[in-house]
Amino acid sequence: MAEKKITEEQLQKAYQNVFGSETGQLVLDDLSYRCFKYTTTVGLISHDEILVNEGRRQVLLHLESQLKPITKE
Asked: What pLDDT does residue 4 have?
């Protein structure tokens, strides 16, 4: 079976469709707290834990970037 090519715009629209609903926003709000949007990833924890926490944060930042309006260049 041939793999379907998905454009960046199609993918961004998919993110917006999933997280644009009230339920999606509830999930995104939960992820914001779990993925260190409002707190630092650095503290009295090990270096490995800091790296894991920063990875979580990067995923959240990617999700949020996909929810910005689509701009045509």
From this structure: 82
DSSP string, 36-67: TSSS-S-SSS-HHHHHHHHHHHHHHHHHHHHT
How far, in Å, CA of 66 to CA of 11, rounded? 8
If one counts every other C-beta atom within 10 angstroms of the C-beta of residue 36, the result is 17
Q: How many CA atoms lie within 13 A of 19 on its CB side?
A: 21
Q: What is the pLDDT of residues 4-47, one digit of tens each?
A: 888 999 999 999 999 999 999 999 999 999 998 988 888 778 98
Distance CA 62, CA 73 (A): 20
Interatomic CA distance for residues 35 and 5, integer angstroms: 30
Q: Where are the domains of the chain?
A: 8-66
Q: Is the pLDDT of residue 73 over 70?
A: no
